Amino acid sequence: MIIDPQQQDLRANYKLLIGSIVPRPIAFVSTINAGGIANVAPFSFFTGATPAPPTVVFAPLRRFSDGAEKDTLRNIRANGEFVVNGVPETLVEDANAAATEFPPEVSEFSEVGLTPAPSIVVKPPRVGESPINLECRLVQIVELGPAAAGGGALVIGEVVRFHLRDDLVDNGRIAIDRWNPVGRLAGAEYTTIGRRFTLERKGR
Ligand SMILES: Cc1cc2nc3c(=O)[nH]c(=O)nc-3n(C[C@H](O)[C@H](O)[C@H](O)COP(=O)(O)O)c2cc1C
């Protein structure tokens, strides 16, 4: 089957993207608004980019319902700071609950029952329940698509502090079994790390 994305609507294209790009790690992103209210929401259009400086990217889309920008993006536009909190299996239900569309004056931290932990370099708090927090400073926002439903933005951030729960770090590497991250599949489906195997790189 061959599909021209211009011949179908944004929801149909979205379904093909989220089914093709799997599993996706989840960035649970905390920000603050001008009134100092902390916001946190999950984003699975997320990955790392470069190590020097350590850089991450994620994509807050405009709301499908009305084309409005998400609070997370508005807050980052306003003050250029955010924290990417990792989502282990123990936190995934809270991350899902935080994806509810609360009004900007309501903090997901109190609504969902998450603990705001102070950051060191940036103002947005970390999610205390997360074993990995990446304090980030905005590098660039790349606007994508129309200023309407279907469009969005790519947020590029530099990691200015890593916070890692002590038992997670083994000789400078992260012990994946103790971290136990969750991946997002399509729709309401998620996954944890399944069968693992080793593949050596040739010619190194
Ligand atoms: C696991 C998960 C992953 C999500 N990934 C994204 C994403 O990559 N981009 C996006 O725009 N929304 C994503 N969402 C939806 C947002 O979390 C949701 O719209 C949220 O209300 C945005 O909050 P905000 O307005 O406080 O920024 C995801 C939701 C869940 C549950």
Structure in words:
By secondary structure, the protein is an alpha+beta fold. It has a single domain (about 25-180), classed as Pnp Oxidase, Chain A (Roll). Helices cover about 20% and strands about 35% of the residues. The chain contains five helices and 14 strands. The mean pLDDT is about 95. The structure holds flavin mononucleotide.
Please indicate the percent range of residues in DSSP E strands (runs of 2 or more): 25-35%
> How many domains comprise the coordinates?
1
In CATH, what is the homologous superfamily?
Answer: Electron Transport, Fmn-binding Protein, Chain A
Low-confidence sequence ranges: none
The coarse overall form would be globular
CATH class: Mainly Beta
Share in helix: 10-25%
Alpha-beta classification = alpha+beta
Number of helices: 5
Q: Count the beta strands.
A: 14
Task: Fill in the CATH topology.
Answer: Pnp Oxidase, Chain A
The Rg value, from CA coordinates, equals 17 Å
Q: N-to-C SSE series?
A: HEEEEEHEHHEEEEEEHEE
Distance between the termini: 38 Å
Instruction: Give the overall pLDDT as a whole number.
Output: 97
- The strand line-up of the biggest sheet is 3-2-6-9-10-5-4
Which ligands does the model contain, each kind named once? flavin mononucleotide
CATH architecture annotation name: Roll
- Characterize the main sheet: 7 strands, antiparallel
